[in-house]
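Now for our specimen.

. . .
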Amino acid sequence: MKPTTVLVLLRAVCVAMPFLLGACASWLPSSRTEVASRWSSYDDARQSLAAFTPFESSRADVHRQGLDPHLNAGVTVLHFADVLQRFSTAALIRNGDMDRGVSACFQAGQRCNAYAISVKKLQRQRVGNFWADSLDFRRETITTGWSVDVLLVFVDDLLVYELMGGQPSIREVELQRKPLGPLQGWGTQLAR
């Protein structure tokens, strides 16, 4: 190769290197966890559930909101024994002090069942330096999203109780540091 060709290639590499290293962050892995749902946020779920009124709404009303267990993977059907287990401490409360819907469920026995709804949308993004991450010196993962858990209790086809909880905003940062990078676990590897 001619010295001028080598010089031109060296200049091209020097000019391209910052762009290549800057783009390395996009090479880091990311993942997403999502339970299929019509809800796009915690507030959206809360507003959707506000349409239900215990002792007025029916199972068909719940299904019209997209919460049919046959069509939505986030809905689990609970039988009476499961419902009893969820409210095991409620049995210790005097009947007059107990929530009206829970009391109606206990009185209905086998005619009482429930839907447990769990929806979450999480995104995990690795951030930082590609080379430090790849060589296992430093890994930083940021998890963002939301989750919602709902319990809808029915007697026959009448909604008698509704309970909602969850996390409106999730933001977690996980940082792993290994000063020796890929050599950090060599002692355990040799012991095997």
About this structure: The chain has seven helices and five strands.
